[in-house]
Amino acid sequence: MTEATPAVRVGLETTIGEIFADLLGMDGPVDPNRSFFQLGGTSVLAARLAARIGSRYQVRLPLRAVFERPTVREVAALVEAEVRGGIETLTDAEVLTMTRGTSS
Q1: What is the C-alpha to C-alpha distance for residues 56 and 6, in angstroms, rounded to an integer?
Q2: Cα Rg for the chain, rounded, in angstroms?
Q3: DSSP-assigned states of every residue in 2-31
Q4: CA distance linking residue 45 with residue 48, whole number of Å
Q5: What is the separation, in whole angstroms, between the first and last Cα of the chain?
Q6: How many CB atoms are closer than 10 A to CB 99?
Q7: CB count, 10 Å around CB of 80?
Q8: What pLDDT score does 94 carry?
Q9: What is the pLDDT of residues 68-96, one digit of tens each?
């Protein structure tokens, strides 16, 4: 798998951090290294998080993944891996477009 460029990873982390903050009722940015559960997340909110991210990026994010990798940074890496899906022909620009949740 190709590693993300900084722009792809930053874009993912920013958007996923916004989703974390929205679900947790937080103002301001979320520390990308803090656990969703340390920030006040519950199992019900984790299910909503997985569903919202799955819908936003058109990926399958199992609830178990949120428990095993509960930080913004870790979730972003999972989403990137799913978006790339082993397809090496995607350019970084295409991945960046997909990770921003825009459709063509």
Answers
A1: 20
A2: 13
A3: PPPPHHHHHHHHHHHHHHHHHHHT--SPPP
A4: 5
A5: 24
A6: 27
A7: 23
A8: 73
A9: 999 999 999 999 888 777 455 567 777 67
The full DSSP string for 38-88 is TTT--HHHHHHHHHHHHHHHT----HHHHHHS-BHHHHHHHHHHHHHTT-T
List of domains in the chain: 6-98 (1.10.1200.10)
Q: In this structure, what token pair is assigned to residue 91?
A: 């350019």
| Residue position matching structure tokens 């936003």 | 56
Burial of 53 (0-12, 13-18, 19+ CB in 10 A): buried
Task: Name the more confident of 39 and 3.
Answer: 39
Predicted confidence (pLDDT) per residue in 9-24, tens digit: 788 999 999 999 999 9
